[in-house]
Design a protein that fits this description.
Layout (H helix, E strand, L loop, with lengths): L1 H29 L5 H10 L25 H5 L14 H19 L7 H26 L4 H21 L3 H26 L6 H14 L2 H24 L12 H26 L6
Helix pairs in contact: 1-4, 1-5, 4-5, 5-6, 5-10, 6-7, 6-8, 7-8, 7-9, 8-10, 9-10
């Protein structure tokens, strides 16, 4: 029952992610308009909380039957009911992906779900929605908007406070969170400053800080960076070898960081324990 509920919630959350990403980008486009009245009117229509759902192609207002996650897209064969323009595969894929992440998070959650752990888990699901939006936004436009990053920092901080409060050694847990943030954001900040922004963007620095706060342990923050670099290399190397990208091509790193964060949070302790057993290292938390 819990898995079914989470799957349905995940589909709805994925639909929200698609709408959120599109509206945020459209709002930025509208703000470039010179006529103030026209800008204000369009921004009202694109409001995330108050704006009505619409087709991204013809801007026709959508009915309830057009908004059923995944099913509406399949029923309409990927086309708008009104203008018959093709609707991107992004929409069903994101909906299915977020639903899968909700279910996988529940099944693979590293701690027993009871008491305040349910609050921590619920906040993680909220973070997943925001991180999915960041991933799609960075993948499409190579930008990590502050309108997404800053609220997620607040949610991650709240979850970190819960982790600290329930720890038997809260001072130690607080230090671990600070160190995790230093690892996640500090290394990127050094690279950003050293290269003058050529190696890594300022958005990645803020994202690294956010993700360090999310995993809340320095060991998992190091694992996050390692996995992100590994995933990035595996994804880019074939394209570079086939000359689809060059050494000077810009590649969004946010999607790899976010994917690595999910892995580090859900399976990080298991991966780290395995690594330490294999190499007979002293556990470091």
């Amino acid at each position: 029952m819990a898995i079914a509920i989470l799957a349905i919630l995940g589909l709805c959350a994925g639909s929200f992610v698609n709408a959120l990403v599109w509206r945020l980008h459209e709002q930025e486009e509208v703000r470039q308009h010179k006529e103030r009245h026209a800008v204000e009117e369009k921004l009202r229509n694109l409001s995330i909380l108050k704006g009505r759902s619409m087709c991204p192609e013809c801007r026709h207002e959508l009915a309830a039957r057009d908004l059923i996650p995944l099913l509406s897209w399949l029923w309409l064969r990927g086309k708008c009911r009104y203008c018959h323009q093709h609707i991107s595969w992004q929409y069903p894929l994101v909906e299915a992906a977020v639903a899968t992440l909700f279910v996988v998070s529940y099944v693979a959650w590293p701690d027993v779900l009871r008491g305040t752990e349910w609050t921590s888990f619920s906040l993680w699901l909220v973070l997943l929605v925001g991180l999915a939006a960041l991933l799609i936004y960075d993948l499409r436009w190579m930008l990590l908007p502050n309108k997404l990053v800053f609220p997620l920092l607040g949610i991650a901080a709240l979850r970190a406070l819960i982790v600290i409060a329930r720890d038997a050694r809260p001072g130690y847990a607080l230090l671990a969170v600070i160190l995790a943030m230093a690892v996640g954001g500090g290394i990127f900040y050094i690279l950003f400053q050293f290269s003058g922004g050529k190696w890594i963007g300022g958005g990645d620095v803020k994202l690294g800080l956010l993700l360090g706060l999310v995993v809340a342990r320095p060991s998992q923050a190091f694992l996050l960076l390692f996995l992100a670099s590994l995933l990035g290399t595996l994804a880019v190397l074939p394209a570079w070898l086939t000359k689809r990208v060059s050494k000077t091509s810009r590649v969004p790193f946010g999607p790899f960081l976010i994917t690595a964060c999910v892995i580090a949070l859900l399976w990080g302790p298991t991966i780290i324990d395995w690594y330490q057993r294999v190499f007979q290292l002293t556990p470091v938390r």
